[in-house]
Structures are given as C-alpha cells and as structure tokens.
Amino acid sequence: MTERHDKSGLQVASELAAFIDERALPGTGVETEAFWTGLSKIIHELGPENRELLDRRQRLQEQIDAWHIERRGQPHDHNAYKAFLTDIGYLAPEGPDFEIATSNVDPEIALIPGPQLVVPITNARYALNAANARWGSLYDALYGTDALGSAPPAGGYDKGRGARVVAWARVFLDDAFPVAGLSHADARRYHVRDGALLVDDLPLMQPEKFVGYRGHPKAPDAVLLVNHGLHVELVFDRTHPIGSRDQAGLADIRLESAVSAIMDCEDSVACVDAEDKVLAYANWLGLMRGDLTAEVSKGGDRFTRALSPDLTYAAPDGSPSSVKGRALMLVRNVGHLMTNPAILDRDGEEVFEGLMDAMITTLIAIHDLQRDGGNSVEGSVYVVKPKMHGPEEVAFAVRTFDMVEDALGLPRNTVKIGIMDEERRTSVNLKECIRAAKHRVAFINTGFLDRTGDEIHTSMEAGPFSRKDFIKRKAWIGAYENLNVDIGLECGLMRKAQIGKGMWAMPDMMAAMLDQKIEHPRAGASCAWVPSPTAATLHALHYHKVDVFKVQEKLKAGGRRAHVDGILDIPLATFRRWTSEQIIREVENNAQGILGYVVRWIDQGVGCSKVPDVNDVGLMEDRATCRISAQHIANWLHHGVVSQDQVMVALRKMAEIVDAQNADDPHYRPMAPGFDGIAFQAACDLVFKGRVQPSGYTEPILHQRRLELKRKSLG
Ligand SMILES: CC(=O)SCCNC(=O)CCNC(=O)[C@H](O)C(C)(C)COP(=O)(O)OP(=O)(O)OC[C@H]1O[C@@H](n2cnc3c(N)ncnc32)[C@H](O)[C@@H]1OP(=O)(O)O
Ligand SMILES: O=CC(=O)O
Ligand SMILES: [Mg+2]
C-alpha cells in the first residue's frame, strides 16, 4: 500500500511529495503551496479534457475500422476514403499560411544543424555521457567501431588500423578545412600568426574557419575550427601515444557531436510508479542543477562521471573565448495516454502522467534558468511532446504549458515544445499542428518508429500489411518524410526551430550509418536521432559534408513535394506471395524483438535494450519498435496470415533463444521452459491483445505487468 500525503486535494505518494518539497522546489523561488495548488488545478481542470481527447481517438478509430470492414473485399477507393476521413474530422481543413513565432531559442536548436542524441533519463551514467557527448573523439569513433569496414580487434592497439584511421581523418580535414596546395596528411606544423592559422606556412582556403586555439600560438596545444556551425578541435600532444607518432603531433581530432540531447522520460524508460518517476525526475534535477554525478567502473578503473565544463580558448585575436561543453538538453515528457499511480486526484483516480511530467519537469528546469553557464542561455525549457494525435491535442499541450507557466511564475512561452510527428493524424494535419503551437514550437521530428506502429494500427481492418521491412519501402513513408520537411519550411522553421529525422536503430552498424544517414541532412533535416555518443560523432561528419541551410533554402523555394494523398496510401501487402518459411521468419523476428525487449522491461525495469534480430544484428528496441512488432503480428493474426498456435510456437521458440542470449546476465530470469512468468505473459498480451490496445500502444500492458511484478516481489 503506497503511503500518501494530501497536497491541495491530490493524494501524492510520499516519496514523490518528499522529492518535490525537499529537493525540487528549494532554490526555484516557487512556494510549496503554490506548486501543489497549481498542480491540483491543472490536474482537475485539464484531466477531463485529456480523457475526452482519448475518447475521441477511440471514436475515430472505431469509425475507421467500421469503414474498412464494410468495404472488405472491394478495391480501395482512395477518394471515398479521403472524403470519409474529412467527414469524421480526422482530416482537418488546412488554414492560411503562417510563420512560427517562437522566441528565445538557443543556437543549438535554431542555428547549428547536427546530431541529436537520445538517452533514457533513468540511467544517470548514460545521461551524463549523453550531455557530455557534445564532444567526441573522431579517432576513437573510427577505431572502435566498424565504421571503416571491419570490427575493432580484441587486444592491444593495432598500428595498421590506427594508421588507416589517421589517414581517413586527414581526408575529412582536407574536405572540411582545405589548404591550397597542401594536404593535411602532409602537414608538419599548425601554428597561429597574426590571428591566422597556418598549416606549415599556408593559410586555410577559408581562413574564417579558424576560430580559436589553446596554448602558445607558435605551437598550440589545440586549434579550434568551425564548419557549417560545427566545431572541430585538433589536439596536439607530442607525448601522447598517437601524437608522438604523428609528424604534426596531432593526437586526436575531436568533433562537436551531439549538439542537442533528449533526456527521455518516455519510450526508453520503464517508469510505472512514484519510485520510478522520482528516479527520472531526480536525474533531470541533477542535470538542470549541473551537479549530477555517477560512479563508473570500467576496464578496471573507477571514476566519478560529472558534467563536462565548457571548453575555453583564445580567439584568433588572443581574447578569451569558450564553446559549450555539453549538449543542449531537452526533456521528453510522456504523451497524453498514460496515467500513473504516483498521484491520485480528488476522486482517487490516477492522474494523467503527461500533466504531472509537464509541471514537474518544468519546475526542475527553473534551476537551470536561474544560473549562468548551464543549459539554455536563452532562458528556455525544451520539452519534447510525443504521440500527439492532431491539432487539438497539440493545442491541449500548449494550454497545459500555459497553466504550468502561470503556476510556476514563468514568462509566457518559456517552455518550448518539440512536436513528434509520429502519429498518422498528426502527419496528415501537420500544418495545423504547428499552428496550434506557433509560439512554442522548437522542433518537429519524424518519429518513424511510432509512426509505423500507428500506420498498422489505424488501418488494422484494411487487410494484412506487408512484411516489416517492406512497409518502410512503400510510398507512404516517403510522402510522410518529405511533407514533414516541406511543411516545416513553409511554416518558417528554418533558422528558428529544428526539423528533425528519426533514430538510427542499429547501434553497432556504424559503417552502414556513415553510408546511409547522410540522407537526413540531404533531405533538409537540421538534426536526426542517434542512439549513442559514438554514433553522434560519426553522424556529425554528415553535417560537415552537407550545408543543411542551403538544402532547406532550395527545398523551400521548390514548395511541397508531397501531399496528404501520398501519406494516406496504406502499405498493405498487395500480392501476398509469401512462402510459409517467409511468414514464420517474419513472425519469429518480431517475436524475438518483443521478447528480448519485454523481458528486460518487466523483470529489470530497463526501457531500452539492444536485442539481436534473427540475422543477429543488434537492434535498439524501445516501446515504439515493440509497438511495431506487436501490431504487425496482431495484424497478421487478425487476417489469418498466421494462426494463434503458430504465433505461440514462435513465441516459445524465440523465448528460448532470448534466454540463451541473456545467459551471462546474473539478474536474468529465463522464460523457458515454464513460459509462465509475467514477462512472457506480457509479450503474449502485446500480441494477442494488440488489436484492441489504444492506438496499438504497448504502455498499458507493460505498465500493468511491471506493477504486477513489483507487487509480487514485495510479497
Ligand atoms: C523510437 C524512439 O523513441 S528512439 C529513442 C529512444 N531510444 C534511445 O534513447 C536509445 C538510447 N540508447 C541506448 O539506450 C543504448 O545505446 C542501447 C540500449 C541501444 C545500447 O546500450 P548498450 O548495449 O549498453 O551499449 P554499449 O554497450 O554499446 O555502450 C555502452 C556505452 O555507451 C554509452 N551509451 C550508449 N548509449 C548511450 C546514450 N544513448 N547516451 C549516452 N551514452 C550512451 C554508455 O554510457 C556506455 O559507455 P560508458 O561505459 O562509458 O558509460
Ligand atoms: O520517438 C521516435 C519514434 O520513432 O517513435
Ligand atoms: Mg516515438
């Protein structure tokens, strides 16, 4: 039984109440009474509206289901479908042109295209690493991954591999910072004379790209360069193992990498109650106060990880200068769907978690607003709001933050919103969604993973979908990605807000990422998601190659390339000439991803995992990828592509494989041979009850099953 305190009519779990009263509020200038009264007002005034929005989602889904059921067996009539979606209000009329009016936006959001790292906020060690991933070693990223074609060797330093890394990095320098008549590969000396960088004795072709140095101008310890807004630090040290072998003494090339980082309270975490929410909020507090630390033991060493300081330099003229040492941090709140038992309302009902997140994460960010040299130099708070369906839900988020600002005494529009374009009703009404947040919007982003899950769920009754990999190759996704950029540009996001693209979900496949993710900046994205600091460093190279603002200018001049009609093209399996092996392999692949993810979520509270697929490629799995896999099996089950028995056989077979994959984890509880644990049951629920989950989300089942496990372990 949770111990609770009455706070202005709210029944608040005591650990959350203590956290707010004793840790979050002090130092913000917000009175305890004002906070709880404000939260109570928000919960009681906005709660019913929140519920109504969810009911509307449900009603629309039922209408869409019925439309497809009535027409089963008939050819799809696109025009009739579109007219129907307009009639029921799923497709809203598009209003006149406008430009966003977001103010006080930090340069990392408005002016510096670059990687955006996402990290589960409940893991302090990773969260600190993410904040510090503003800077990363190019040499390490190339040496320590498969980026140059082969996996890193075990054992000591491989000189041949090191030489290849150095040569590759010199080509990067030649591309980004050319010197007329000299390759960086042949350079022997970097020095500063009369405010200019000389490589040997030659200037850069674009001398303005030299922006600072550390140490003596004649033999600097570091040189700072900038290209397309991203900094590059050349580190010189002739005593360093690498620098000592380098003719110019170049020991490393450090790249400005994760320009921004999303501290995630949503799909990469497992927060089901007050205990979990306090962990998430406490880490956010540490980041906003700047005093978060984590004890790390690694490779036999133990050390304390803290936030990196800014980097200080002399500008070319010798005056002191600095560059940010940490990524600009955004916080992802949960969406409008879930409730959480951490707080009960005056009727004893769980409150909407999104309202709680809005108030508490903003309160915590006041610690940053009140200090210099912290996160936002512009005095803004950046909240990423996921899984919103259409303009009315965006408007609701805006009103929520209006009330939060009033309660916390913050100037209007202090809170900026990142709109995840990851539900179909948002994609098809994107312009109106942006309009609804025109004073707050700091980014739009194509969260294609959730978006794929919603694609399947929305049209569940339309027929069987293509195999997962083929869904990605159909017309809808190109239209969705293009229209997101086109509308973002049309609404004036260029140089005011980010236009972002989605996650690279294969964390170990860095060669493939280097090859493919350049398409994101080429498509006009000013940021795109990466799963790790190393991926951020490698993805940064793409923004050195592509001048995103030039691309955006060209795209803007060209107008819209895609239309809602393209987005509405449902990626059903048209020919269905699958062999039974292909069908089983598809189901097993999905089952493996679900089980590998769910077993750690339920049993260990880990919200994001790397899970091998059937080809043994480690995939980043979070709630959104789980949503896709579960919805996919649910869709094939519903249309008789596979039977319930076949799915159960696949789940059991893959559970054994997942058990074997986790054999080295001392905390792991195998699912086989009993298949009667809560985690296995949760995976079965996700699949067999997937069709009736709200929008196909996995949260309700995951939360319920994890709470069940927590209750059980407490006896
Ligand atoms: C659809 C969506 O919503 S996508 C958004 C949600 N997804 C995410 O947030 C992905 C975040 N990424 C992760 O959680 C992890 O990278 C995983 C689970 C994919 C892989 O984790 P692991 O197997 O532990 O990674 P791996 O062993 O390769 O690397 C661990 C090291 O990388 C660091 N690391 C890995 N991911 C991150 C990250 N996202 N941020 C910061 N550091 C990270 C760790 O701190 C650790 O370094 P350390 O020992 O110095 O602390
Ligand atoms: O949140 C991101 C997604 O792809 O979903
Ligand atoms: Mg998502």
TrEMBL record:
Residues 16-73 form the Malate synthase N-terminal domain. Its EC number is 2.3.3.9. The keyword Disulfide bond does not apply. It catalyses: glyoxylate + acetyl-CoA + H2O = (S)-malate + CoA + H(+). HAMAP family: Malate_synth_G (MF_00641). Keywords: Acyltransferase, Cytoplasm, Glyoxylate bypass, Magnesium, Metal-binding, Oxidation, Transferase, Tricarboxylic acid cycle. It holds the Pfam family MSG_insertion. Acetyl-CoA binds at V118, R125, Y126, S268, R305, P531. Belongs to the malate synthase family. GlcB subfamily. Residues 329-561 form the Malate synthase TIM barrel domain. This is Malate synthase G. Its main location: cytoplasm. It comes from the Bacteria. GO terms for molecular function: magnesium ion binding; malate synthase activity. Residues 583-673 form the Malate synthase C-terminal domain.
